[in-house]
Known about the structure:
The protein is built from 9 helices and 12 strands. With 317 residues, the protein is of the alpha/beta class. The strands form 3 sheets. Strands 3-2-1-4-5-6 form a 6-stranded parallel sheet, sandwiched between helices. A 3-stranded antiparallel sheet has the order 7-8-9. A 3-stranded antiparallel sheet has the order 10-11-12. It starts with 5 loop residues before the first strand and ends in a 7-residue tail after the last helix. The protein binds nicotinamide-adenine-dinucleotide (NAD).
Amino acid sequence: xxxxxxxxxxGTGFVGMSMAYALLNQGGINELILIDVAKEKAIGxxxxxxxxxxxSPNRMVIRxxxxxxxxxxxxVVITAGVAQKPGETRLELLKTNGNIAKEITQNVVKSGFxxxxxxxxxxxxxLSYIVQKTSGFPSSRVIGSGTVLDTARLRYLLGEYLxxxxxxxxxxxxxxxxxxxxxxxxxxYVGCKPLVKILEEKKKPNSLLEEFSKQVRDEAYxxxxxxxxxxxGIGVALAKIIKAILNNEHEILTVSTMLNGEYGKTDIxxxxxxxxxxxGVQEILQLELTKEEQQKFDNSYKVLNEMKIEYHFESIE
Length: 317
Ligand code: NAD
């Protein structure tokens, strides 16, 4: 590996460090810089993680740093903020995490950073919007983790149910990373065969689809109830987004990205399938949604747009 592959992580909590650990195990980057308001934590995490380098696929420099380290980074990942507490909605997190994201973005941009932002802190769709507006970067270079994790959960669930590798389950969760997300079932395939057709042949009721959706939607709450927060799944999902960028994969992932007329919406970040390259979001995949699916998309937009208004976006200009 000759070229520089430098990632700066801001927020060395559970989510950030799960991503760092996934990157250490998978290899593919050669510099990882950790930034956190809790400076000692960032130093400790860097020391601990560095001990794993001899056993990882490639040499990697891992150290704690500061915002000046962002100047020549390829990617800055934001996982800083306050985690969702039991019973707390993502909306309630908005004010606190919004201001944290804004402050971090200003510091990153001041360094001269000219790469790609990847945002995972919640509510991720709104925070991605805040990062884009604050940075002034083209929206292609500000990517939210969106519904990548939700989609992975659904693919896993369906794969287990049908006893087919989740790699062959082609389906998306779209919209908000949150309660208003939905599955466009008319576009769900197992291999090349429509999922609805498979369930019809197996004489399964249509209500099963709603059960799958509900199960995925409730999973984050259930995990939080049992172990306070979720981090391994999102950690691996973030590593996937980062590698799609650095390897110029042209991979389709349901990231949160700015809509410019796609699905009839503008000036909003939402989870949609998009092609990810080393330049960020290359293109949004426009699916032909059924009338009912488009209504669910519209509903998710409404929820996010209300949150957006609630944050008072004038304050970030
Ligand atoms: P955590 O509390 O373990 O870690 C957050 C870290 O951010 C802490 O180390 C804290 O010191 C740091 N931090 C706070 N303010 C900062 C600032 N101004 N600058 C730098 N660092 C700062 O939380 P976590 O469990 O790692 O969760 C992090 C975020 O990820 C939360 O917002 C959570 O809701 C979100 N999350 C997103 C997804 C997803 O799918 N997008 C999934 C799970 C969690």
